[in-house]
Amino acid sequence: ARRNSLGCTLSWHCSDEEWYKSTLSHWTGEVEEDTIEGVLGGCGEVDAADIIGSRKFIQPWLTQRALPILNALECGAGIGRVTSGVLLPISNCVHLVEVSEKLISQAKKRLAAHENRASFSQCSLQAFMPAQEQYDLVWLQWVLGHLTDKDMLRLLQVCRDALRPGGIVVVKENNAAPRDCEHGRGKYTLDKENAGVVRSHAHYRTLFALAHLRLVRFERELGFPEDLYPVRMYQLERQA
């Protein structure tokens, strides 16, 4: 693996083929329930707190923004939980991207009342290519842990280019303490139960910088049980 401008080597603990075989199997087969409980890995009790926390996090940006949000994008949208609770109430239209046919089918049913405002793509995020300058808000939540560092970086870059002027990317993901990260010299730990990884806060910040996204602000989600990984929300904008 080559060393980039920040001196960070994007190595991975296994081959891409092995990694994505595992993650695809998890989301298309092992996630048996196309429900909130199913997509949240048995932690459905955090749904309400999660939605409230997300709304509070983006409120300062909404308050200072003079223009309406025309188009929003949710990557790894599952059954449309975040679109329904966070994005549709503040956006004219939302585009949902999800790899699982079962989950995106359920999302279409759940959002049927908003069929004129919600559109869908069944696509893997390592292949997804949004149109440039299309979206005012891009939402990435509990999905980046299923991508390798290399593919996460690519996704951040294309999402950056998909932003309209004044638009932002929001990332909401679990964080692991560096001392618990057995891979990449403190960069991430394996989350075998959910076929993903949990990255450290510092490693996320490095990847954001590599994608030429400026970290505007971040907050820790405070409404979750103590026995879960810490969750942070990041507001990112295109670097000037």
Structure description:
The chain contains seven helices and nine strands. It has a seven-stranded mixed β-sheet, with helices on both faces. A two-stranded antiparallel ribbon has the order 6-7. Helix 4 (81-87) links the parallel strand 1 (69-75) and strand 2 (91-98). The model has no long low-confidence stretch (mean pLDDT 89). It is globular and about 45 Å long. The longest helix has 18 residues, at 47-64. With 240 residues, the protein is an alpha/beta fold. The protein is 32% helix and 26% strand.
What's the layout of helices and strands?
Layout: H1 16-30, H2 36-39, H3 47-64, E1 69-75, H4 81-87, E2 91-98, H5 101-110, E3 118-122, E4 135-141, H6 149-161, E5 163-174, E6 188-191, E7 196-199, H7 201-210, E8 213-220, E9 231-238
Parallel strand pairs: 1-2, 1-4, 2-3, 4-5
Antiparallel strand pairs: 5-9, 6-7, 8-9
Largest sheet: 7 strands, mixed
Distance between the termini: 28 Å
The residue-averaged pLDDT reads: 89
What is the topology, as strand order, of the major beta sheet?
A: 3-2-1-4-5-9-8
Low-confidence stretches: none
